[in-house]
Amino acid sequence: MTAYQQMTPAQLAQEVKVLREKFDEYKNMGLKLDLSRGKPDGSQLDLALPMMGVLKETQDFMTETGFDSRNYGLLEGIPEARRLMAEILELEPDEVIVGGNSSLNLMHDCVGIGFVHGYPGGKGGWYKEGNIKFLCPCPGYDRHFAVTQHFGFELVSVDMKEDGPDMDAVEELVKDPAVKGMWCVPKYQNPLGITFSDDVVRRLANLSPAAPDFRIFWDNAYAVHDLEPGKGDKLLNLMAELKKAGKPDMALFFTSTSKISFAGAGIAAVGGSAANVAWLKKHFGLQVISGDKVNQLRHARYFKNKAGVMAHMEKQAALLRPKFEAVLDTLERELAPAGVASWNKPRGGYFIPLDVMDGCAKRTVALCKEAGMVLTGAGATFPYGVDPRDRNIRIAPTYAKLDEIKTAASLLCLCAKLACAEKLLEQAKA
Amino acid sequence: MTAYQQMTPAQLAQEVKVLREKFDEYKNMGLKLDLSRGKPDGSQLDLALPMMGVLKETQDFMTETGFDSRNYGLLEGIPEARRLMAEILELEPDEVIVGGNSSLNLMHDCVGIGFVHGYPGGKGGWYKEGNIKFLCPCPGYDRHFAVTQHFGFELVSVDMKEDGPDMDAVEELVKDPAVKGMWCVPKYQNPLGITFSDDVVRRLANLSPAAPDFRIFWDNAYAVHDLEPGKGDKLLNLMAELKKAGKPDMALFFTSTSKISFAGAGIAAVGGSAANVAWLKKHFGLQVISGDKVNQLRHARYFKNKAGVMAHMEKQAALLRPKFEAVLDTLERELAPAGVASWNKPRGGYFIPLDVMDGCAKRTVALCKEAGMVLTGAGATFPYGVDPRDRNIRIAPTYAKLDEIKTAASLLCLCAKLACAEKLLEQAKA
Q1: Which A residues 111-130 touch B at CB under 8 Å?
Q2: Which residues of A touch B56 (CB under 8 A)?
Q3: Of the candidates A109, A265, A290, which has its C-beta nearest B294's C-beta?
Q4: In what order do the strands lie in the sheet with A341-343?
Q5: Residue A105 contacts B where some CB pair is shorter than 8 Å
Q6: Does the predicted TM-score (pTM) go above 0.80?
Q7: What is this model's ipTM?
Q8: Residue B58: which pLDDT band, with cuts at 50, 70 and 90?
Q9: In order of start, what are the domains of chain A with their CATH numbers?
Q10: What percent of chain B has pLDDT over 70?
Q11: Nearest chain A CA: its distance from B210 CA (Å)
Q12: How much is the mean pLDDT over chain B?
């Protein structure tokens, strides 16, 4: 097949006609497909069912230090859960606070603490300083951007490159003292699926921000989410690099087991330097007595350590690989020949990013919707929901069943081709 | 025995000498007692152990509406948990959001939402308005006061009377537009153990605050915590009164199962009018996907409804009654004759409040500490930790074992008498 950009207007018109007919066939099928949600499916959740049997009525609820997990106390989490989460975050146990069920909530609270009280090194609550800015590598995670937008901060876009955020831009931008923080999903980034290179991590660790209370929000949500066990991406340890650089306070680390055990019923953690942990404990101590330590104990006893988590994640990977492959195979087979799109093949995480021709993402998503398929809104992965090139589409292949995914991927390819062919035809006519 | 205030200086001196000798005996016993903590003890927690067997590996995790509780979604909580918590709060299920594990956290977040965004009817985030004030009926719950102090608000003391806060004062104070809220523990108030009268609830419902976004923070933490089943205090339904008064938005309602099932591993809820619930959902939606719905399902299936909760609370009451009686009997026997203290006999809740002679609370607590017993710091139940009359002591008899409580209560009586006798002797000499 001829790539669309090499086609004559007549060929394009014919292609649009053919695609339209196929599209109408899909429309008449009354499909209900959904590739929008970065959610585990039921079979993935079932893998963690044995965890529910760990704390039976007859068993004891004492932590390894003899503290009753069913009672008030231990703001920082139970020791065995701190150790488990520290291993995942590659931090020391006393550098970790195990909180509630949601790392997003911890991130929100940490932004809130900055807004109301600031961070060590700064001048107090950011709200007193007026306009606050946060760096948003994009495409990125819409809920990150939304948190800082909600606090009234200005979202500053930074391009994501193949090895992480555009560090030349970041190094320039942090010279502005209004820039108080930066969002990062360093491993299997949402939505690109790439992992920050060693060079990017080192440059981040050596940033010299004008704001003394600047913080990198290091959301390591996919730390253990390799699709091919043993062949996953390696992420350089940011904390180790920060310590080398003499800047241990410059980042806050987040993760959760929401995509390991149960989504929303797992445990979440925040980590950082001694100064940051002391600061967070001081402020968290005013808002809560502790997270749910019974659930912490359940997780710690079931997974035991990172090796236990990795063994569990191998089972998840076995369920997820066919889904990712189904999408990637379809993209390769049905979309590559048209030459109007590109995508990554992530080695882990929850998403496949698709870039269509500039100006065609919204139209593609709209066409999919017309045919009964929900995708994440085009632009959602950019600050303020606006993709300046209108090209990025986030594919979330985890939740749907395999046969649905195959149909969905074919429909997506068809819609992308139709949107791009229409656009090229328009341009040719103009 | 002669009441201290009727004693001559010589009699007082003799009494101090005798008490001192007894005190030294206690000191030599090497006691380690703790009546400071409003915590359940292990036997109380054991009552909820069968709940751990409710969600076994083989059972299904679907809510009654077929939603998988193990997956993301349902910010407002699962329907059966909303119904349960609504019944406890005496609200409609759609007036309730079931959140995480901590009602304190929900209260903190609701204050935070006020600080950053304000509430419907107001002009946006309170931080833009400068000095914000909160009414603090006292003695009251130190963690309430601490939350608003942490946000930089001015804490305005309001006297607690036998039937609730001094409403004449409250009605005056809310004429100040800087007064944005008021803390209330309406039933078995912490620490007084009293329940707001119908008249107080009605006057609260009919307040006309100058601030259009004024909110009553109605922390119904002890809604179902009667010591004598069937003979508990009745609290008038504030929401019903607010609706009658045409002011349904003026209160936010809080409760949790921390003192029903497991402390810190229960479920918490916030309730309010349709406008408030919509507002909270909008803001909560930016910070979290949902609370832990597996734990919500566990609680809903185990307790089923309020009747199930009440049956459970009867078992707790059977454990708590002897502890409360031990303290009250000791106070009556050992402290009443001296005529230097007064106390309430609460019909529920977690605390017994003791008022000693003005200027003697700190000294009493210090003496107890010297003899090996921890009490809540004198003054802790007042804004900024300062009891203007230095007389209130909060006794928390739930956590210690019964025999410890008997010893502790005797020691407390001794220390209170010693502190008061010393004070009177000083005054007599001066």
Answers
A1: 112, 115-116, 127
A2: 52-53
A3: A265
A4: A341-343, A352-356, A392-395
A5: yes
A6: yes
A7: 0.97
A8: low
A9: 4-44+310-429 (3.90.1150.10), 61-304 (3.40.640.10)
A10: 100
A11: 25
A12: 96
